[in-house]
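Design request, tokens follow.
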């Protein structure tokens, strides 16, 4: 790590901040049981680092330095505030009962209570949007404006979500702890879903000028890595990380130089990240070994089949359909049914896939989003039913959220309309 002196010091501090913030905050929350207080003194510790490290150098154990500074600020603040006097006394009694705080490890890390914070941020009592916002704020270390930008909402709106989540934690007395063995199977899916929601928004933005938000997807992968390290025996944690890596490996080929969409069948697979694919494929094996598969492990296996194929034509579509059958039994949803129908179309032809899509026409969750109509347009196109394809593309165009998606659908619509006119 750089020594923190000179012009590059700010970058060194920022790198430490990104790496240490989640652990720092989790350790403070575990000690003081107050998320607001923990955030305030963590920020003060970072400010102190910015003041001291450029001249004195980044400490050998920067995490321990930040934790010690933040704890001192918290205790000073509690002592000055009479409203907190009783709480401080309770905390001191609890600390005495618990024994001394474990020292930082030789590598400079903090006692790692991030796992507690994962489950607190993803508690089922919190609204889904609030879980995502709180996870990004507390565990990814993003500022409130950064979280707001990630989801294209005003900072004030995102601040309200975060405040609402913290208030719910206080009022509902949500504990800062890892669930017990009897609770864990029911709670872990909430944590995984939050991380997957963050990744999905990064992989396929819901709106805006860009198809992908690479930074957001990478934050989700970073958090998934942390969770997998903290829970190495949980196969679905491995499955989720594998899925993210295998999908994110294609990021460089998914858009052209102008930011436009490049479909899977047209992508230059030489631009796929082979190192990431290799890592993800290894995690798939871990996710599927030793018991019944979970939904993330199965999805990762599907992604691995795509990534390992030389092209779309030689992709193992029968195996992909079989895996979608397994996934539909584990976690049935209209989206799974849609993706299975597309895979069936690749295996058995567009008419077979279209028949399955037509069976889903009454699903309001599908009809409210553009992939369903876009998939119908594609299959109708392949069947030479260009007038119907144009109508489907037109419907999808009205629902698409990002400009690259709209541009792609406009091109498909224009081509279908031209072919329909030529046929007339």
């Amino acid at each position: 790590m750089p020594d923190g002196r000179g012009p590059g010091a700010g970058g060194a501090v920022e790198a430490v901040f990104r790496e240490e913030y989640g652990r720092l905050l989790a350790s403070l929350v575990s000690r003081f049981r107050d998320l607001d207080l923990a955030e305030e003194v963590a920020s003060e510790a970072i400010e102190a680092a910015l003041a001291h490290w450029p001249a004195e150098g980044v400490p050998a154990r920067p995490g321990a330095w930040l934790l010690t500074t933040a704890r001192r600020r918290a205790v000073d603040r509690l002592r000055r505030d009479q409203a907190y006097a009783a709480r401080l006394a309770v905390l001191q009694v609890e600390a005495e009962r618990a024994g001394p705080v474990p020292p930082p490890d030789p590598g400079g890390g903090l006692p790692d209570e991030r796992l507690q914070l994962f489950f607190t941020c993803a508690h089922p009592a919190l609204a889904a949007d609030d879980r995502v916002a709180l996870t990004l704020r507390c565990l990814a270390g993003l500022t409130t404006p950064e979280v707001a930008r990630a989801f294209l909402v005003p900072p004030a709106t995102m601040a309200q979500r975060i405040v609402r989540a913290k208030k719910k934690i206080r009022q509902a007395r949500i504990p800062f702890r890892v669930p017990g063995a009897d609770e864990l199977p029911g709670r872990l899916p909430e944590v995984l879903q939050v991380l997957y929601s963050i990744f999905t928004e990064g992989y396929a933005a819901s709106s805006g000028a860009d198809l992908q938000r690479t930074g957001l997807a990478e934050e989700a992968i970073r958090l998934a890595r942390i969770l997998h390290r903290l829970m190495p025996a949980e196969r679905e944690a491995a499955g989720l990380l594998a899925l993210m890596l295998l999908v994110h490996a294609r990021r460089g080929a998914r858009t052209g130089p102008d930011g436009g969409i490049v479909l899977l069948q047209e992508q230059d697979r030489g631009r796929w990240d082979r190192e990431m694919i290799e890592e993800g494929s290894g995690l798939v094996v871990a996710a599927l070994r030793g018991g019944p598969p979970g939904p993330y492990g199965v999805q990762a296996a599907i992604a691995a089949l795509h990534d390992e194929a030389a092209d779309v034509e030689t992709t193992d579509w029968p195996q992909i359909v079989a895996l979608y059958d397994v996934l539909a039994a584990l976690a049935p949803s209209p989206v799974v049914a849609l993706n299975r129908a597309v895979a069936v179309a690749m295996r058995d032809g567009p008419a077979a896939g279209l028949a399955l899509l037509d069976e889903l026409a009454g699903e309001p969750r599908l009809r409210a989003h553009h992939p369903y109509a876009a998939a119908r347009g594609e299959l109708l196109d392949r069947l030479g039913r260009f007038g119907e394809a144009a109508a489907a593309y037109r419907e999808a165009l009205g629902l698409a959220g990002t400009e690259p998606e709209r541009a792609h659908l406009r091109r498909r619509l224009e081509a279908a309309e031209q072919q329909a006119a030529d046929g007339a």
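Comment from the thread starter after seeing the answer: thanks! The radius of gyration is 25 Å.
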